[in-house]
């Protein structure tokens, strides 16, 4: 089986009743914003700034190469408010998405953090998998997440170069099918597993345009001027890490993204 580079979605724990906890999909946004603007961006386009429930989430979050320093996550602190509500300031840090601490009180702070740095640092950031606190008006890249309640769908990049048809066969043998992209969040999820400047096959092809798995999603994210069916033989589609699509000859040998689940 060809080498698999990176599975992007994060699985929740499976309970004895066979209930699947929600999958958290993480989306690294390499645009600098204040914590508040980052929160608004994430709530508009995803679910919220990133929540980390446990060490498994931290270990499975893969920082893009472009993230060389700090990035905002969903932690925030308002100790005066929490003192009024709870009667104490013990672990007053909360997640933007829930207003609560991590299940079981999970924390993963850098040594000597949080320190609030002169009562100015009340927003959470991540660096090399560990948390710190920063001034909320600082401009940083940030991490959003989306939640998939049924825990059934994930994308995997296969690095071996194949034609579109060979990629389809591979995905159907080892996964479910070539990836179908139904919305901007899934488009971001697929783009996030790609290597920088890399173009990869996914499940859209022309007869007229349809999805490999038979889905009817109308979502499209074409490059300006595309699709153009250059030379009359560009009947398959690839995506770049910049999230744009282009039609190309199906015989090109490219990496590809498979999907597993519904």
Automatic annotation (TrEMBL):
Gene3D superfamilies: Mannose-Binding Protein A, subunit A (3.10.100.10). Residues 19-145, 150-259 form the C-type lectin domain. This is C-type lectin domain-containing protein. It holds the Pfam family Lectin_C. Transmembrane segments: none annotated. Residues 1-18 form the signal peptide. PROSITE patterns: C_TYPE_LECTIN_1, C_TYPE_LECTIN_2. InterPro entries: C-type_lectin-like, C-type_lectin-like/link_sf, C-type_lectin_CS, CTDL_fold. Keywords: Disulfide bond, Signal.
